[in-house]
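re: the backbone from monday

yeah here it is again, tokenized this time
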């Protein structure tokens, strides 16, 4: 059996840490270590907060490899998300931390409150487009609010006039639409772009057609050279050895 200890320092003691917060740390530590059927809570000891987890002997090599991979930044996504989430929790709690091995040696440091504050930029205004399914239209004043869904992403900061909203209404929960307008964007500290608002000036309904149909339409345009070129779909299928011909 081996033991790993998450040390939470410069904030709570074992007696003062809220139970719900302790549960969040425990959940993320379990994800970081993996092998959840073979990792057990030993105790929560004093000395800041020392959250000790014991690893059953059969799972020791796998957990060791996973912890080393986390330290090197090459672990599975779930483990790396847990690493970042633990550091976020520490930062929110004005704390720092460490993952220690059974001998008390540091394996992974958590800077927590001492990490550099990421810089954000913006907001920037830019003309552009959004695509997705209209899932909500609402508003009582002259500005109507539109909610657009593109897969797992939901844009809720869209607004437009009553006239455009009336034209959009028949397409709600229907085909994919492309919204044209001006967006206000902010670049977050992690490099991601976040849409703060989007003013819709017009839209178009996109046809849901297959790639083969789209290519056929392009080939049918007078004056283009597509009819004389190989069929790209057939070419891909031939390369994969799955062409019906």
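seq for it, each position gets an aa:
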């Amino acid at each position: 059996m081996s033991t790993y200890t998450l040390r939470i320092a410069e904030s709570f003691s074992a007696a003062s840490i809220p139970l719900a917060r302790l549960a969040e740390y425990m959940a993320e530590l379990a994800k970081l270590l993996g092998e959840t059927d073979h990792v057990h809570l030993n105790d929560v000891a004093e000395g800041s907060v020392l959250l000790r987890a014991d690893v059953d002997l059969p799972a020791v090599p796998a957990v060791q490899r996973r912890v080393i991979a986390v330290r090197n930044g090459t672990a599975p996504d779930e483990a790396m998300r847990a690493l970042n989430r633990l550091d976020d929790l520490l930062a929110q709690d004005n704390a720092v931390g460490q993952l220690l091995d059974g001998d008390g040696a540091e394996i992974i440091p958590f800077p927590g409150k001492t990490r550099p504050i990421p810089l954000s930029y913006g907001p920037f205004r830019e003309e552009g487009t959004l695509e997705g399914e209209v899932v909500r239209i609402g508003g009582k004043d002259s500005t109507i609010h539109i909610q657009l869904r593109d897969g797992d992403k939901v844009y809720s900061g869209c607004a437009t006039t009553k006239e455009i909203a009336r034209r959009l209404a028949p397409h709600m929960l229907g085909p994919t639409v492309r919204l044209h307008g001006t967006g206000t964007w902010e670049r977050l500290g992690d490099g991601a772009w976040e849409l703060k608002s989007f003013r819709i000036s017009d839209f178009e309904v996109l046809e849901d057609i297959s790639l083969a149909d789209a290519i056929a339409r392009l080939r049918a345009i007078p004056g283009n050279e597509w009819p004389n070129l190989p069929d790209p779909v057939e070419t891909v299928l031939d390369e994969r050895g799955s062409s019906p011909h």
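DSSP finds six helices and ten strands in the chain. The longest helix spans residues 77-92.
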